[in-house]
């Protein structure tokens, strides 16, 4: 499991750097975020949830049944959308209303 940061989408806001509890994300000389030691990432997804530019994807490894799928996150208003994209192109989404999330 690890993240991948898309430098083309990254605007260098630094939110993911602040969010990572393991201090794993740094900024490059060009101001873009990168993860230096991908194997140290334990998949808390904090960085995904902080990025407002959808620049971070998370790889779901075979150990959690991901088979190479990627997880992405989008926040619009109070709706959080989690999307899993499989290698064969299959897309599944889960929407969570943050205002109602304490109900479950
Ligand atoms: S939160 Fe997203 S846009 Fe901001 S530095 Fe990290 S990857 Fe780049
Ligand atoms: S998923 Fe968690 S541990 Fe991994 S880089 Fe992002 S914030 Fe750090």
TrEMBL record:
Keyword annotations of the record: 4Fe-4S, Electron transport, Iron, Iron-sulfur, Metal-binding, Repeat, Transport
Lineage top rank: taxon: Bacteria
SUPFAM superfamilies: 4Fe-4S ferredoxins (SSF54862)
Gene3D superfamilies named among the record's database cross-references: 3.30.70.20
Molecular-function annotations in GO: 4 iron, 4 sulfur cluster binding; metal ion binding
InterPro entries attached to this UniProt entry: 4Fe4S_Fe-S-bd (IPR017896), 4Fe4S_Fe_S_CS (IPR017900), Fe-S_Ferredoxin (IPR050572)
Position of the signal peptide: none
All copies of domain 4Fe-4S ferredoxin-type, residue ranges: 1-30, 31-61
PROSITE patterns assigned: 4FE4S_FER_1, 4FE4S_FER_2
Pfam families xref list: Fer4_7
Coiled coil: none
PANTHER family documented for this protein: ADENYLYLSULFATE REDUCTASE, BETA SUBUNIT (PTHR43687), L-ASPARTATE SEMIALDEHYDE SULFURTRANSFERASE IRON-SULFUR SUBUNIT (PTHR43687:SF6)
Official protein name in the record: 4Fe-4S ferredoxin-type domain-containing protein
